[in-house]
Design goal:
The protein has about 400 residues and is α+β, with helices and mostly antiparallel strands. Helices cover about 40% and strands about 20% of the residues. Strands 5-6-7-8-9-10-11-12 form an 8-stranded mixed β-sheet, with helices on one face. A 5-stranded antiparallel β-sheet has the order 13-17-16-15-14. Helix 1 crosses helix 9, helix 2 packs parallel to helix 5 and helix 9 crosses helix 10. The protein is elongated, with a radius of gyration of 33 Å.
Length: about 400
């Protein structure tokens, strides 16, 4: 999830919590009155401002790496006397006290062949500089995510019902590419190549004196604090779960479903029940009011999960939800080929789960409605072994395409 989407999600969840407190017993009845902002629209509206901020922060980072804070280390070493330019009092005292360093010269006088001396070394991989490298990597990762997102919008924008300026999408991609070029310059610096070798995976950055009192480092620290909207990814997942639940319930209300029990809804033809037993997904159980056999569909929103571990025979479909599209994992297909709002996405998805077709022939109890292959029949459910479609007759001339 991109920065402004996560930022608004946090605000949306706070509004939802206020609404729930005030409408505990009438949440679903009044849900149409709750018009929470679209994460999509907020994201598109704020990206340009965000790119300008990123450009500024990258310029700050460039200034830092030109003259970073370093830690000077002082170490006593023994060197040949002719190599020593000068001795401080401590080095002189140590040399005087160490007879092994002295030898007799040609005039039969004792003189030091070696001396104690102070060697100064600069340590650049200090905590604050490792933080700067972490920030560079985070910005780079975020910009790549942004670029992938906008590239997906290019080919679909003409058919979109989102109010977006196409020229801005192209401008956004050019801005992102420009920022990535600036970052490549930063990552090719000796500063980054040296400091990034040190393993540094801290998520909670400590506010050190340098980060608080050095103006340039402080710019970066403040940006990082704002950049990391969710310190804990689990909090983000929980909030996204709440947001998706709200979207589904809002869509059900808009589609004419009445609440019949806690998280159970009906439109007279179909019953839909939401099962939330895991913060990473929502299970949607769909049944016709005629046959009562529920079919389970899983809507997943934790993109850190492996997308190939979905073989539970009790679950008919697995789909991955983000605010821009819904992806059918098994079919390797997106729900929409154009950019539409989140609520419309959910409505299309729910309509797909309850898709009914009027037919004027019973031939589809012998041959597949989708591919015309001979079809198997068990307890009024028709399953095609060739294309995998599943359907049932709700009436003599009405078919529910279950899958």
């Amino acid at each position: 999830m991109r920065f402004f989407e996560a930022k608004l999600l946090n605000e949306v969840i706070n509004n939802l919590e206020f609404y729930l407190r005030d409408n505990k017993n009438s949440y679903y009845t009044n849900i149409k009155k709750l018009n929470l902002p679209s994460l999509q629209h907020s994201s598109l509206a704020n990206d340009k401002e965000y790119f300008a901020e990123l450009k500024f922060i990258i310029s700050v980072i460039n200034t830092i790496i030109a003259k970073p804070h370093i830690l000077s280390k002082e170490e006593q070493v023994i060197i040949r006397s002719e190599q020593a330019k000068s001795l401080n009092s401590e080095s002189f005292s140590l040399t005087i006290k160490d007879p092994s360093l002295w030898k007799e010269n040609s005039k039969r006088l004792m003189q030091p062949e070696y001396v104690h001396n102070v060697l100064y070394t600069d340590k650049i991989d200090i905590y604050e500089n490792m933080f700067i490298c972490l920030l560079i990597d985070l910005i780079n990762s975020e910009l790549i995510s942004y670029r992938l997102h906008y590239l997906k919008l290019i080919s679909t924008l003409d058919n979109s019902d989102l109010i977006v300026n196409k020229d801005y999408v192209i401008e956004a991609i050019e801005l992102i590419d420009s920022l990535l070029r600036k970052l490549r310059y930063v990552k090719n610096s000796s500063f980054y190549k040296t400091v990034s070798k040190t393993n540094f995976n801290e998520r909670f950055i400590k506010p050190t004196n340098i980060l608080l009192k050095d103006r340039l480092y402080n710019y970066c620290y403040k940006f990082y604090k704002k950049f990391i909207v969710y310190d804990d990814i689990n909090d983000l997942i929980i909030d996204f779960n709440s947001y998706l639940t709200y979207l589904i319930m809002k869509a059900l209300s808009d589609l004419g479903y009445k609440k019949v029990a806690n998280m159970s809804f009906s439109n007279g033809i179909f019953g839909i029940e939401l099962k939330i037993t895991n913060t990473n997904y929502i299970d949607i159980l769909v049944k016709s009011n005629k046959y009562k056999t529920p079919y389970r569909h899983r809507l997943i929103f934790d993109t850190t999960e492996e997308l190939n571990n979905y073989e539970d025979s009790d679950i008919l479909s697995y789909s991955l939800f983000d605010i821009w599209n819904i992806y059918d994992i098994k079919k390797d297909k997106y729900l929409s080929s154009s950019v539409i709002s989140e609520i419309k996405l959910i409505e299309i998805y729910l309509n797909k789960l309850t898709h009914i077709i009027k037919v004027d022939s019973n031939i589809y109890n012998k041959y597949c409605l989708i591919c015309r292959n001979s079809i198997d029949y068990t307890n009024n459910v028709y399953v095609c072994e060739k294309c995998g479609s599943i359907y049932t007759y709700l009436e003599d001339d009405i078919i529910w395409l279950i899958k």
